[in-house]
Design goal:
CATH topology of one domain: Serine Threonine Protein Phosphatase 5, Tetratricopeptide repeat
CATH architecture of one domain: Alpha Horseshoe
Shape: elongated
Helix content: over 70%
Radius of gyration: 18 Å
Length: 164
């Protein structure tokens, strides 16, 4: 198989995997993303998508490996940094998660998902004032972003209890 054929084949597997995700067939999607990275080990989007499916199945270590591989290929892949941070948060590695969100925010300072998730990680560490700042920034950029709105309410309740 020539270079261009390989790329077409990997892209074809990736597209099929994406369709499987849309249909809710995650097991088949994972097979497709696995095939895409087997055909083209430098396909960063396929590694990221593979990580998302593994994260969905709570295979966090394998998901991190996939996000790390995507970032090894493209260190400026903002969504892979965010996905890595979210997965680290699920492993309760909040400091490390914050580092991933910080890198994403260096590349894209107004990334609502990174801002909100950084706020969540800060809140888990009990840094409520800092967390509120990040939720407020996210809400300022997208006033209807429900995860930030809900997380802000939760943090406000926690900080009120601490002040009682």
């Amino acid at each position: 198989m020539g270079f261009l054929d390989k790329l077409k084949s990997a892209k074809s597997w990736y597209n099929k995997g994406t369709k499987m995700v849309i249909q809710g067939n995650y097991k088949e999607a994972l097979k497709c993303f696995n095939k895409a990275v087997e055909v083209d080990p430098e396909f960063d989007f396929a590694w990221n998508s593979r990580g998302l499916i593994l994260e969905k199945y709570e295979e966090y270590s394998k998901a991190l490996d996939s996000f790390n591989k995507a970032l090894e290929i493209d260190p400026k892949f903002v969504m892979a940094w965010i996905n890595r941070g979210i997965t680290l948060g699920k492993l309760e590695k909040y400091e490390e998660a914050i580092k991933s969100f910080n890198i994403a925010l260096e590349f894209y300072p107004n990334q609502v998902l990174a801002l909100s998730n950084k706020g969540t990680a800060l809140g888990k560490l009990g840094k409520y004032d800092e967390a509120l700042n990040y939720f407020n920034k996210a809400i300022e950029l997208d006033s209807e972003y429900k995860p930030a709105l809900e997380a802000k309410k939760t943090i406000l309740k926690k900080s009120e209890k601490m002040n009682e």
